[in-house]
Amino acid sequence: AVDKLINVAKPVIIGGFIAFALKKPLDMISKRYEKIYDNIYKAKLEKIKRQNRGVLPDELPPRSTLPFKLSIVTVYICVILFLALLMVIIVPQVAKSIGDFSENFDVYYRNIESIVNKYYKNNDDTIAKWIEELDILPKLYSLSSHIPTILMKTFGATANFVGSVIDIVLGVILSVYIMAEKNHLSEQGKKLGKRFCKPDKYNLITKYLNLISDKFSSFISGQLTEAFVLGVMCFIGMLIFRFPYAVVISVLVAATALIPVVGAWIGAIAGTFLILVVSPMQAFWFIIFFLVLQQLEGNLIYPKVVGSSIGL
C-alpha cells in the first residue's frame, strides 16, 4: 500500500524536491527584483502624493506580485541555460570520445591482450580450464528458453523508463506551482498545525522544521558549489597532465560528487577504467592525481564551502 502510494505521489515528491532545491536561488533573485520594484513603487507613491497636494490617500495601491513571478521565470531560465550549456559542452566531447575509442579499438584490444598474455604466459591452459569449469556452452544453449522472459523484462524496463520520464516532466511542472504558491501553502500548513497541535508543540515543530529547511537548503547549494569546483579542478589538472577524456571524466567526477562521501570516488573509478584501456601507466598516474585532488577537496574545499554553509 505504501509502495503504491509513493508511486502515485512520485510527481509531487519530485516537484517538491525541485522546488526545495531551487529555494535559495529563488530567494536571492527575488530580493534583487524586490529592491528594483521598491524604487518603482516609491516613485509611484511620490507621484500620488504630489497629485494629492503632499498627502497620501488612506488606501494605497497594492504591491504587484510581478517581481516574484519574474524571479521564478528567471530561476527556471537559468537552470535550462545551465543544462543546455552542459549538453553543448558534454555531447560533442562524448561523441568525440566514442569516435576515438572506436578508431583506436584495435590498439586498446592489443593492450588488454598483452596484459592478459603477460599474466598467463607461464600457464597457457588457465583460460581454457576456467571456461571449462564455468561450463559456459550449456548455459548459452539453455539461455534460449529464457528469451521470452528477457523480452518481457526489457519491455518492463522500457515502460518504467518512460514512466520515470513522465514523472520527472510532471514533477517539473508541479514544482513551478509549488514555488508560485509557496506562501499560500505555508499559510495553509500553519493553519493545519495550529488546528491539530497545542501551542507549545506547534512552536517546537515549527522551530525544527525551519531549522531542517534552512540547513538542508544550505547543504544542497553548498554541495552543488563543491561539485562544480571539484569538476573544474579535475578538468584543469587533467589538461595539465595530458590525461585522455578530460571533459568526460571531469563532468563524471563533478556529477557523482553530489553523492556525499563516496560519490567522487565512483566517478574516479569510472574514469580510471576509461584511461586504463588507453594506457595502464596513465591510469596509474590518474589515481595518484585524484588522491591528491581528493585530499585538497576533503580537507580544504569541502569544509569551507559545505561546512560553512551548514555550520559544521
Overview of the molecule:
There is one protein chain. This protein has 312 residues and is mostly helical. 85% of the residues lie in helices and 0% in strands. It contains 12 helices and no strands. Helix 1 crosses helix 7 and helix 9 runs antiparallel to helix 10. The radius of gyration is 28 Å and the shape is elongated. The chain starts with a helix and ends with a helix. The mean pLDDT is 80.
Features:
312 residues; mainly alpha; 0% strand
Helicity level: over 70%
Radius of gyration (CA) equals 28 Å
**Ranges with pLDDT <50 over ≥5 residues?**
none
Mean pLDDT: 80
The fraction of residues assigned to DSSP E strands is: under 5%
Enumerate how many helices there are, as a single number.
12
Principal-axes geometry comes out as elongated
Could you give a short account of the major beta sheet?
none
Strand count: 0
Q: Which structural category fits the helices and strands?
A: mainly alpha
Order of helices and strands: HHHHHHHHHHHH
Instruction: Give the termini separation.
Output: 39 Å
SSE inventory with pairings:
Layout: H1 2-21, H2 23-51, H3 66-103, H4 105-119, H5 126-134, H6 136-143, H7 147-180, H8 182-196, H9 199-240, H10 246-256, H11 263-276, H12 280-310
Helix pairs in contact: 1-7, 2-3, 9-10, 9-12, 10-11, 11-12
